[in-house]
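Usage

Read records sequentially. Each one opens with the input sequence:
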Amino acid sequence: MLFNSYEFIFFFLPFTFLVYFYLNTKHWTEAGKAFLVFASLFFYSWWNIAYLPLILISMLFNYTLGRHLSSRKQRGREAGNRLLLTIGILFNLGLLGYYKYADFLLDNLNTLLHTQLDLLHLALPLAISFYTFQQIAYLVDSYRNETKEYDFLNYAVFVTFFPQLSAGPIVHHAEMMPQFSRKKNKLVSYHNIALGLFVFAMGLFKKVTIADT
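and closes with the structure output:
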């Protein structure tokens, strides 16, 4: 789903906005977070639902490992943490490399060795580079004991949040968590709505008139 598509502008964005803030006005904050995760995963799946398990597996793996790294650090059991961090980074880079370079490597092997290995013809999953490097940063922060909050729903929002999922920027866990937990951000603010609509309209204008022409 593109930000400049009719589906996003006239259905997804207003529906997500209304439901999220309705849940928060009823003080159902956990339901609001869960809905935001669901909406973000729906946004992600719109391109190709076949890649939904990929982001879920990546998210569960990195959350579990990050929490384990930080827990070991806090208990003074740091031996082996560097190895665990290395395994986590290699897992993430391996996943990214498989989708980005598998066909490239097979093609070069066929050329060099005169083989006829079938290419996989893999489509690069949406946003895999962004959420991979963002979660690597999370693992490094956990290794350094710089992550202070381990609510899974918050982490899921941190990884899947649709406004930045497909286009970035890559952010640190500590940058996003205070914004998600801040109470005033859960209340309807007409100033923020107006500002957000203005920024979105300017971005849409630049996208349509400059980037797409």
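Summary fields computed downstream for this record:
- The chain has a mean pLDDT of 88.
- The chain is about 70% helix and 0% strand.
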